[in-house]
Design a protein that fits this description.
The structure holds 2 protein chains of 2 kinds. By secondary structure, chain A is α+β, with helices and mostly antiparallel strands. In chain A, 16% of the residues lie in helices and 32% in strands. Chain A has 2 helices and 8 strands. In chain A, the strands form 2 sheets. A 5-stranded antiparallel sheet of chain A has the order 1-2-3-6-7. In chain A, strand 4 and strand 5 form a beta hairpin. The longest helix of chain A has 14 residues. Chain B is of the alpha+beta class. Chain B has 2 domains: 94 residues, Alpha-Beta Plaits (2-Layer Sandwich); 81 residues, ACT domain (Alpha-Beta Plaits), CATH 3.30.70. Helices cover 27% and strands 44% of the residues of chain B. Chain B is built from 4 helices and 11 strands; from the N terminus they run ββαββαβββαββαββ. Chain B has a 4-stranded antiparallel sheet with strand order 3-4-2-5, covered by helices on one side. In chain B, strand 3 and strand 4 form a beta hairpin. Chain B is flat and about 55 Å long. The two termini of chain B are 18 Å apart. Classes of the chains: A alpha+beta, B alpha+beta.
């Protein structure tokens, strides 16, 4: 078991576009560390490799223990070179991130994503995720492209209504 | 979690308000920058035709409020902006993060006196802590509609359903729509 420290912004690894994985066997230890780190984080539902300082396209997700995801999930997902093939719908959720402590913001995400990724045994998996699991997938996959939720904040808290013009 | 600022810093609450124009933020932050102040926290918005800034600023000790007041008095002379500055005591610059759920409450209906008061009194009496609040008068002069949106931290053990039930009677009494939804942030 190896719980790794979570890298926080402004560490440049969080803004890096991560490298694709060529051979799955090279990331088995990394995947184990990511799962251990996720399990150790209070309420954590996912960790991406750059969050433990490794800029490769790997992330792990498990929303099954979260109140928003417990009734609609695919269990533990170990994702190598994940791709979103299609997305639809949108919803706003207030997100936070272990790599950006003490801040939260409203982020708009697709409510359904069609996902393809390689598993640690080399098999390719493709399915549709919805709801909270879809949000978690988009958040973690953003890390692989150097995107933080701060890059996607959709509104100021006070931006709920179109303002009148005062002339 | 209890969040405390650094003890070597003097903290001040600064409020600036005046008729909206371009440059209010730039002018204000220029004063602070030149004095070597940090903007620790701030919220600025248009209210009516006014622009209002509320800032918590810090400066390494020793630093007096008089210095800030003098600089703002000079900068704002004749430009219609008013500045109010208050020194914050050490126990004022610590805050306790809410332990309960965070919820967003929308209240709207035909304008009438007491909407803000009744809703917030109900919450205050039950230990619900308002963390953000916004009101607008919309609609037409003939049919004015009042909109109140607030964010509140519920006390430990209170659910969104409990908070909704708390406001149920006000719906009928004030003839307003009220909805409460959970916005407790999810950390990834």
């Amino acid at each position: 078991m190896a719980v790794k420290p979570i890298v926080t912004y402004p560490d440049p690894v969080l803004k890096a576009v991560c490298t694709p994985v060529d051979a799955v066997e090279t990331v088995s230890q990394l995947i184990e560390d990511l799962v251990d780190t996720m399990r150790a984080g209070p309420g954590s539902v996912g960790v991406a490799a750059p969050q433990i300082g490794v800029p490769v396209r790997v992330c792990v997700i498990d929303v099954s223990k979260n109140r928003h995801g417990k009734d609609n999930n695919h269990g533990l997902l170990l994702m190598i070179n994940p791709e979103i093939l299609a997305r639809s719908g949108n919803s706003v959720m207030r997100e936070g991130c272990m790599s950006v402590p003490d801040y939260t913001g409203d982020v708009e995400r697709a409510t359904e994503v069609t996902l393809r990724f390689t598993e640690p045994d080399g098999g390719v998996r493709e399915f549709e995720a919805t709801g909270f699991e879809a949000v978690a997938i988009q958040h973690e996959m953003d890390h692989l492209d150097g995107m933080l939720f701060l890059d996607r904040i959709s509104s100021l808290k006070t931006g709920l209504f179109r303002r009148k013009s005062y002339k | 979690m209890n969040v405390c600022r650094k003890p070597n810093l003097a903290h001040f609450a600064v409020t600036i308000i005046g008729k909206d124009r371009t440059g209010i933020v730039a002018d204000t932050s220029e004063v602070l920058y030149k004095l070597g102040c940090n903007v620790e926290d701030s919220s600025c918005t248009m209210l009516g035709g006014e622009f209002a800034m509320i800032l918590i600023v810090s400066h390494e000790k020793p630093f007096s409020k008089k210095k800030l007041e003098a600089e703002f008095a000079e900068k704002n002379a004749g430009n219609g902006l008013s500045a109010f500055i208050r020194t914050l005591k050490d126990d004022e610059i610590c805050y306790r993060e809410p332990v309960g759920e965070l919820c967003l409450v929308s209240v709207y209906g035909s304008d009438k006196p007491g909407i803000v008061y009744r809703v917030t009194r109900e919450f205050a009496d039950r230990g619900v802590n308002i963390t953000d609040l916004n009101t607008k008068l919309i609609g037409s002069p003939k049919d004015p509609v009042y909109v109140l949106v607030l964010e509140a931290a519920l006390p430990a053990g209170m659910s969104v359903e409990d908070a909704t039930a708390l406001l149920e009677n006000l719906k009928k009494e004030l003839s307003v729509e009220i909805s409460v939804r959970l916005i407790t942030p999810v950390s990834f």
